[in-house]
Each structure stands twice: as structure tokens, then as C-alpha cells.
Write a structure and sequence with these properties.
single chain, 239 residues, mainly beta, 5-stranded mixed sheet, 4-stranded antiparallel sheet, 2 helices, 16 strands, 11% helix
């Protein structure tokens, strides 16, 4: 009996030690941080203006009023809870047109911002629900072209920059736009995506750029370009 008792006691102590060393995943993941920057174009603070952050689930104010007491710039962070909606209220000051601010969420995405020069700041600037952005998959369809392009990933709600098209063009055509839901986007253009998305390549007949020696000699190969695109002119090969 004594030996069994000692064994059970030892086993219970070991289990307690393991439990105590486990990280508090649920607690850590539910509390997140957003950041803010407050600016004043005149450099004398916000003159009584402030931003009040309210937890819409409870109606309670979160922390102190956010303001710029003096100077032209301040920044900080606010602890928020996952899945909770927050309301950001504007308390008017003497010179609202001098005030600027930007708030960035826990995913690095701009929640809202305001530039100085515009004094028409609404009483409720924004409401925002805290979430964790997941990865979304962006795929590419060659349309009339051929070949393949590897899918890319982006954060939900983040900015995604469309890549250059590396599909093989159909005969006699050049790449024109990426298309989704009837909307056309140039390669290099940035858009915001929230769900898995497939972009289809659109092709067009090229414009032909030719080169005139204008009194010189020799020849240069013409260039095929898509309408509306920028090109880099080649070095002159005429003599």
C-alpha cells in the first residue's frame, strides 16, 4: 500500500508540473494589440480633441481618451479582444482641421485614417470587429493563353499586388489585363482580397511600335505592346 501510494503521489505531481508548464494558448490568442498614430499639423497638440474607444459588447470605455496633449506626433497601442466590435468616437476640439490619425489592426491592416486639413470628422469615426486574418489563395487562369502559373497566398483583407503574366500568349496577341467578375486590373496594381480568388488573363491584339532611322542606316525589330501600357524604349541600333 505504501509503495502504491508513493507511486500515485509521484504521478500526480508529474501531471501537475506538465499542466503548469503548458502555454495559455486560449488566453494569449484572445488578447490582441492594435496601434495608432496621432498627428497635429500646427504642432500644438489637439486642443481638446480626443478619440474615445468603446467596447460595443459592454458599452464600456477602453482605457483613457486618446489625444495629443502637445507637439505634432504621438503613437501607442491598445489591447483588444478577438471577436469584439469596438466603436471609435470623436470628441471635438478647437481646431479639428489640424488633427490627423491612423489606426492599424493586429493583422497590420489599416482600420481607418484621417488626414489633416479636413475638420469634418464624424462623431462616430468607425466601428471595427477584431479578427485574425487567414491566408487566402490566389490562382491564375490562362484564358486563351497556355501554360501555368503557381498559386500565390495573401492575408485576408490585406493588399495584394497582381504579378506579371507569365502565361504563353495565344498567337498574334499580347497580355492585356487580369480579370475577375468583369473588373480589369493591370499587372502591378494592388487590390484588397477577402476570399480565395482566381484571376483570368485577358489578351488583345498588340500595337506595333516601329523605328525609323530618319537619315541613319540599318534596321531595328518592331515591338508588340498592349494598348495602354508603358514601355521602355530600346537603345538606338541605327548607324
Amino acid at each position: 500500500m505504501v509503495r502504491i501510494g508513493k507511486f500515485l503521489l509521484s504521478l500526480m505531481l508529474s501531471v501537475l508540473m506538465i499542466i503548469n508548464t503548458l502555454p495559455a494558448y486560449a488566453e494569449e490568442s484572445s488578447t490582441l494589440t492594435i496601434s495608432y498614430t496621432l498627428e497635429d499639423s500646427f504642432g500644438d497638440g489637439w486642443n481638446g480633441a480626443s478619440i474615445r474607444v468603446v467596447n460595443e459588447n459592454t458599452g464600456e470605455q477602453v482605457g483613457d481618451l486618446l489625444t495629443l496633449e502637445d507637439g505634432s506626433l504621438t503613437s501607442g497601442t491598445i489591447e483588444v479582444q478577438l471577436g469584439v466590435t469596438y466603436r471609435f468616437e470623436w470628441n471635438h476640439g478647437s481646431y479639428d482641421s489640424e488633427c490627423a490619425f491612423e489606426f492599424i489592426d493586429n493583422n497590420g491592416i489599416t482600420m481607418f485614417h484621417h488626414e489633416s486639413g479636413d475638420g469634418n470628422i464624424p462623431d462616430v469615426i468607425s466601428t471595427y470587429t477584431i479578427y485574425i486574418a487567414g491566408d487566402i489563395i490566389i490562382s491564375f487562369d490562362p484564358g486563351e493563353g497556355s501554360g501555368s502559373m503557381a498559386p500565390l497566398t495573401s492575408k485576408e483583407g490585406g493588399k495584394f499586388t497582381l504579378p506579371e503574366c507569365t502565361f504563353t500568349a495565344p498567337e498574334g496577341k499580347v497580355f492585356d489585363f487580369w480579370e475577375i467578375d468583369g473588373q480589369h486590373y493591370r499587372a502591378g496594381e494592388s487590390i484588397t482580397l477577402h476570399v480565395d480568388t482566381t484571376f483570368r488573363a485577358l489578351w488583345t491584339s498588340p500595337l506595333v511600335v516601329t523605328f525609323n532611322a530618319n537619315g541613319g542606316t540599318g534596321s531595328m525589330e518592331p515591338m508588340n505592346v498592349a494598348p495602354g501600357t508603358s514601355i521602355t524604349l530600346p537603345e538606338c541600333l541605327f548607324t
